[in-house]
Amino acid sequence: MTRDGLTDLSLARAVVDRDALRRTDEDWLRQAWASPRTRVVRVHDGRVAVTGEPPRLDLDEHPDVAEDRRFFLGTDEDAAYFAAVVDAEEDEATFQGLRSVGAVLGARDAGLVVHAVSLANWHATHTHCPRCGGPTTPRAAGHVRRCARDASEHYPRTDPAVIMSVVDADDRLLLGRQSSWSAGRFSTLAGFVEPGESLEAAVRREVHEEVGITIGEVRYLGSQPWPFPSSLMLGFRAEAASTEVTLHDGEIAEARWFTRPGILEAIRSGELGVAPTISIARRLIEHWYGGELPTNTD
What is the DSSP string of 67-78? Predict the structure, then answer.
């Protein structure tokens, strides 16, 4: 962690070459799938097959799945990697979600999981054409869907969302609690980018809508994918030009300013639960704090 930006975010550590030019090479893809060196990420309902302690991806099984349920993820010097959507009841592996294992997986595995789960989520919800309603089928090794009726092509959806540490002139941090969260659970503010909106404008709009704070300077710090189901979280530090909290839209039930000693004491006492270690929200909080904070939530 540096004061300049966010580094080594849990879900942004991909090291496998996506090797996009291979996605349309049907002969190469067939040979790669059949190769005993190929490694496969098995996915079911947003979870992946893992093994061992601490967990790592269980990549050695080569499931018998139809071509439209397998997606090319990339290559490294050791192997080609695919994702395969499987039926859990037919697979004896242990399946776990990213929230459970994302922070403890190695860089290769974390990157593969994010890619695999993101694609699987998209395919599960985009089986028909948004233009004409016709059925769509995967193309480009799972990175395109093509409509059988009007031949239009559709690409995986990624929803940009801004997430920000709001800091005032006294270097206090603003955290909010969503209405649906339990008492004591707080995090940084966040929201989706609207059509035709810059990232900086989205930061200012979301903060003002949620807590009534006016934002001055906005500085980008880092990003990571968040496939729940399809977001890209873009992290910022936002300088508050005002400090009076006004809750506008009902999404935020409570918002509080914290000093560094105050947030540490609140966490240690159990009064405050902050974002889990896998999230960029946690890293934004620790970036402001200047180091790691104790963990009392998952």
Answer: GGGEEEEEE-SS
Neighbours of 99 (CB within 10 A): 14
On whether both 230 and 274 belong to a single domain, the answer is: yes
What would the pLDDT profile of 261-296 be if each residue is shown by its tens digit? 999 999 999 999 998 889 999 999 999 999 999 986
- Give the pLDDT of residue 3: 57
Q: Each residue of 161-213: pLDDT tens digit?
A: 999 999 999 999 999 999 999 999 999 999 999 999 999 999 999 999 999 99
Domain count, the chain: 2
- Look at residues 75, 101, 126 and tell me which one is the last residue of a structural domain: 126
d(CA 208, CA 238): 12
Q: Kindly report, residue by residue over 24-70, the tens digit of the pLDDT.
A: 999 999 999 999 999 999 999 999 999 999 899 999 999 999 999 99
Distance CA 270, CA 104 (A): 24
Q: Residue 32: which residues within 8 A CB-CB, separation 6 or more?
A: 22, 38, 72, 80, 82
Q: 21 near 64, Cβ under 8 Å?
A: no
Q: What are phi and psi of 81, to 5 degrees?
A: -125, 135
State the residue range of the domain holding 261.
159-289
- Tokens, residue 132: 């004409």
Q: Is 155 helix (H, G, I), strand (E, B) or coil?
A: coil
